[in-house]
Amino acid sequence: MKVLRYIIPCLLVIITGCITQFIPETDEASDLLVVEGLITDQPGPYKVKLTRSMPLGNKAVAVPVSGCQVYVTDDTDDQFWFNEFPGGIYKSDAAMFRAVPGRKYTLHIRTAGAEGSRNYESVPVELISVPPVDSLYYEKVVIREKNEVSGPLEGCEIFLDTNDPTGKCRYYRWDYAETWEFQLPYMVPTRICWFNNNSVSIKVKNTTVLEETLINRYPVLFISNESDRLSVRYSILVNQYSLNQDEYLYWEKLQRISEEVGGLYDIIPSSVPGNVFCVEDPAEQVLGYFSVSGKTSERLFIRENFRGLVNLYKDCPSDTIYGNKVIPNLDISAWVIVDEPYLSPPYRVITNKKTCADCSVRGTTVKPDFWDDDK
Fold first, then answer.
1. Do 7 and 124 share a domain, yes or no?
2. Theoretical Cys-Cys bridge with 316: which of 66, 88, 138, 356, CB 3.0 to 4.6 Å?
């Protein structure tokens, strides 16, 4: 989660011209403590991020909160301290702390400031085990059939199935990390790269309204033909988390806000209570949530031909140079993407877009450790 999810979005469109920005008056306080924390039953280190919210009308940039004491206790009175890192990040010692299903955990924060220190705590949260993902799979989707003007367009829908036969886990949350290989259509030195992308949407599910605990064909992600995700090889890692009822309601409200992006009169962040409070002043608003979850993960690879994928490089060539004459300012404003010195006449094709000549502008040339060329 990000601070942007906890403060009111700037809903004013700033148009060039004689228009004065209007910042409405609201009851939303500024400079609120924002807590983002997650511990799981998987190996750490676990992370807690502390920032301050920004008032409406200001640029939504997280303000890190430094100099804090952060630790977690369990229901056996064990303490696990977190070390401070830049950017308001506090991390646990992976060798000393791994959360255990069935235990309850409480976050403790002591801030330091000119006006004195303050203590914050979360409510105790039990770690509920989460079942594994039974199946993570995809189906090809026809976006548009072939017609007289153009060919067919295809995309991809990714689903998952899961089930907890014990009935203990009834509330779920998912996030994912995408990785895909892409290749430039020119024989340039830096041609093959990988791109990484993390999910930003909120995905939760409640099975208490179902007769069974089975979740079938839950839609994780739809990939359209308008990106190059499916052009070579694609992979997605889906993380499945257990939630208690209170955290489920918290994420559900945030999901509603994100889907209703829009209106000044939509739900405001102060109406989405978290589970952290100020010990000295319980009436103080504290944003965010300290999450305690079971976690399982599943990875899927996709390598298949999809029709009608967008060509991101159709506008790359900007000029063709015949002969062997020097191209002025080549290193500054142009890059060679085609070099045919042995043809008659020899020629080179240049571009003014570096992304067409060097894939590392957009991605990384480092092949991921988990990448399997056979899948």
1. yes
2. 356
